[in-house]
User: Which sequence fits this backbone?
């Protein structure tokens, strides 16, 4: 990199959708200055949008970070948040001033400090890979479910290369990378696995606002609000919490010790964690190659204490291994809609499990950004009548996390009452509905399995499992749209909502019972020694009646 090229502050490179429907690419400066007119970042792949959102949040936090005369540090505060909520231009002006002051640090190509790269990164053979190495839908050049032509795999614009550069730090696969000269971890010219990019290890969630600026503010947690969130959250080393463009330039080595991975100092570092060492290879006004090596390793155990944008689950194996209560990210399951995991999304809805020493601990912890929005609803900044979209994005990786498997991208729109601390009866109803729904779906799945059992004397257990899994998937598919609509009615009378969902489940049972019975073979009517269609119907009726009777029980309040 011999000259400066493509400054990300002023050059358009971030794909956005405006509130009027237009889709364009904007610069970092325009992203914020036009943030009230921009609806969202809408990149080619949802994981790019997630990585760019975290970059934007890091920039916003950094803009409010400044030293005080007494040696203390000014950080983004409740007063700053309230001022920006009332007048978004206060945030825009602060960030614009910051970007102008640090514009020199945002050159995609620079002789000494290219953005999120290492200028002199090289291998012993001075080799590099095709730019396809960075592109998630053609990893390592293997065409899979991609709309790119061959040329699109071999060269990309500076703008697109910048998007994939931010993406690779957040979501890159694990596996062997190019061995960088000077990295003591390299053996035989190879950089051995240190895990995926940081965001790829999370159950990533965030709140969507009515505009990009509102999305920022709904996910920006003031440092002096941590004590109000009702979940553990710390800011360990605010003085050291710097984005990569403000601290000493990264080298081919891991930051800190060569043998001990660095500890994140705060949210700014986490939102811009440099999981890889990268050098883009330009050719003319395009990028054709990349050198990709291992960067800073980070592990997920108990990062709920610092990472605000992930769901968390209690891990008994990790607790036994480490000797203290340990939470791990609750990863998204591509086979499950987001609404099926509302117990993990909202404060006060998680069951407890037995932890170390027999102590009761929450099975799930919500993301801090969701807890922050509960504070906003409770204090009246966000109305009880307002609907809040929660979006989840993730990747299910392949074997050893060395390849991309499935992309997860789902959102659920929640009424304000589910965030309000003093509206526990609404969360209690949702919790009961989720539980009863799963019992009913399980009963229908067993019914499908029992029909298979009744159809032959000797049935492969895997055939039964397949039939049950297929029925479970189909039932949840049938209920998906109805449940999302049902959630939107929670601002109405709860007794009516309870009855409405019971009717929806009864309808589903009738439809699937008829469909499965009509499709049963003649042999199923006769049955075997252990099962017949008549027995299967009896078991189904008993199970579903028991499950649905729960709607007659008195609701228990779920406190925030």
Assistant:
């Amino acid at each position: 990199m011999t000259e400066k090229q493509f400054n990300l502050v002023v050059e358009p490179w971030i794909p956005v959708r405006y509130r009027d429907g237009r889709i364009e690419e904007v610069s970092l400066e325009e992203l914020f200055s036009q943030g009230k007119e921009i609806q969202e970042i809408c990149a080619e792949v949802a994981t790019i949008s997630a990585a760019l959102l975290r970059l934007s949040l890091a920039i916003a936090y950094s803009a409010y970070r400044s030293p005080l005369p007494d040696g203390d540090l000014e950080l983004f505060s409740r007063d700053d948040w309230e001022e920006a909520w009332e007048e978004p231009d206060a945030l825009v002006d602060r960030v614009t001033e910051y970007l102008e002051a640090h514009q020199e640090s945002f050159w995609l190509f620079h002789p000494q400090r290219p953005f999120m790269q290492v200028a002199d990164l090289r291998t012993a053979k001075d080799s590099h890979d095709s730019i396809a190495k960075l592109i998630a839908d053609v990893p390592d050049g293997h065409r899979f479910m991609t709309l790119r032509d061959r040329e699109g795999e071999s060269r990309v614009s500076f703008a697109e290369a910048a998007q994939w550069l931010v993406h690779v730090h957040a979501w890159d696969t694990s596996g062997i990378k190019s061995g960088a000269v000077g990295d003591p971890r390299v053996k035989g010219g190879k950089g051995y696995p240190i895990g995926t990019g940081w965001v790829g290890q999370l159950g990533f969630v965030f709140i969507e606002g009515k505009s990009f600026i509102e999305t920022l503010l709904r996910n920006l947690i003031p440092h002096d609000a941590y004590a109000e969130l009702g979940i553990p959250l710390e800011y360990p080393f605010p003085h050291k919490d710097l984005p990569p463009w403000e601290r000493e330039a990264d080298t081919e080595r891991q930051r800190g010790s060569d043998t001990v991975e660095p500890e994140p100092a705060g949210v700014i570092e986490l939102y811009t964690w440099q999981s890889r060492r990268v050098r883009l290879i330009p050719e003319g006004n395009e990028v054709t190659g990349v050198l990709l090596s291992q960067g800073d390793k980070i592990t997920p155990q108990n990062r709920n204490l610092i990472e605000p944008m992930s769901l968390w689950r209690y891990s008994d194996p990790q607790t036994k291994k480490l000797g203290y209560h340990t939470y791990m990210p609750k990863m998204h399951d591509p086979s499950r809609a987001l609404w099926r995991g509302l117990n993990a999304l909202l404060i006060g809805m998680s069951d407890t499990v037995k932890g170390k020493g027999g102590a009761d601990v929450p099975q799930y912890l919500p993301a801090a950004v969701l807890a922050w929005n509960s504070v906003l609803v409770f204090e009246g900044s966000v109305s009880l009548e307002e609907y809040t979209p929660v979006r989840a994005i993730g990747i299910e990786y392949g074997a050893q996390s060395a390849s991309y498997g499935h992309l997860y991208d789902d959102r659920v729109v929640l009424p304000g009452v589910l965030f309000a601390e003093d509206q526990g009866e609404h969360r209690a109803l949702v919790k009961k509905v989720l539980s009863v729904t799963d019992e009913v779906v399980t009963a229908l799945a067993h019914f499908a399995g029992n029909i298979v059992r009744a159809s032959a004397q000797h049935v492969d257990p895997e055939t039964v499992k397949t039939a049950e899994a297929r029925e479970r998937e189909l039932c949840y598919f049938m209920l998906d749209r109805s449940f999302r609509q049902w959630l939107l009615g929670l601002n109405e009378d709860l007794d009516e909502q309870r009855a409405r969902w019971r009717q929806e489940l009864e309808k589903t049972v009738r439809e699937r019972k008829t469909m499965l019975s009509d499709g049963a073979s003649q042999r199923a009517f006769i049955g075997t020694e252990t099962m017949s269609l008549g027995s299967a119907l009896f078991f189904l009726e008993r199970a579903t009646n028991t499950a649905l009777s729960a709607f007659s029980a008195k609701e228990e309040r779920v406190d925030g």
